[in-house]
Amino acid sequence: MLPFIQVDEDPDFDIIQEGNKINIYVDLRGKGLNIDNIQVKINSNSVYIIDQQSNSTVKTINLAANTNLQVSEVRKHNGTLLIILEKNN
User: Fold this and answer.
1) Is 27 helix (H, G, I), strand (E, B) or coil?
2) Domain locations in the chain?
3) pTM for this structure?
């Protein structure tokens, strides 16, 4: 018998653009992760959230191709990760 409520283990996220910055909010609460062990990497079209303790990718967020962004800041607060991206000149 299947449960009535399906639990999705994939972290929820929101993307908000403010001028030349993109803020990505990722909800890691209840995922059993130590947020201090989280690392953020970026390439030309994806942001990777990596758990350094287990050496596994927690979340991949795809961006528009060739967005030319760089990570300017990462904030961690109460299980929520804020990744601030800026356009690379």
Assistant:
1) strand
2) 13-87
3) 0.83
**Tokens 């929820």 map to which residue?**
12
Q: Domain 13-87 - what CATH class?
A: mainly beta
* Contact by Cβ (8 Å): 27, 83: no
φ and ψ at residue 29, rounded to 5 degrees = -65, 140
Handedness of CA 18, 64, 52, 31 (dihedral sign): positive
What CA–CA distance (Å, rounded) separates 24 from 46? 12
- Residues in CB range of 81: below 8 A, 6 or more apart: 24, 25, 26, 28, 35, 38, 40, 49, 74, 75
Q: What is the mean pLDDT of each run of 10 residues along the chain (89 residues)?
A: 60 92 93 90 91 93 82 93 89
